Hints:
By secondary structure, the protein is an all-alpha fold. 82% of the residues lie in helices and 0% in strands. Helix 1 crosses helix 4 (62-96), helix 3 (26-56) runs antiparallel to helix 4 (62-96) and helix 4 runs antiparallel to helix 5 (105-129).
Amino acid sequence: MMRVVRNVRLWFAPEAVRAEGSTPDYRFSLANERTFLAWLRTALALIGGGFAVDQFLPDLPRPWRAGLALALLAAGVVCALRAVDHWVRCERAMRRGEALPASRFPAVLSLVIAVVAVTMVVVVLAGWAG
């Protein structure tokens, strides 16, 4: 738990991250930042998809529509939080000369999106059938 609290503090303290180790080649830091921004774009897309499901599929039963929308919105929130955490962890590892941290998050996010997509296909097809 303390590690999580310390990492969250580092999200808002870039000077503390910069104080660790030595400055890496700026290209690596910029690549890390581009990856962070790509994760934020993914989070925004998930959030937008959640709102789209809620607003543009009025024929779906409300529980299905709300469930799918909330799943996409929650995935967007988790993705945004994970993006900043991963950015800090990678930046610290580069400054310390350590291996970059491994992450299961892309696999988990992919599975969540796949489950939501399959559910949406089933719900849409069921709506067309009857």
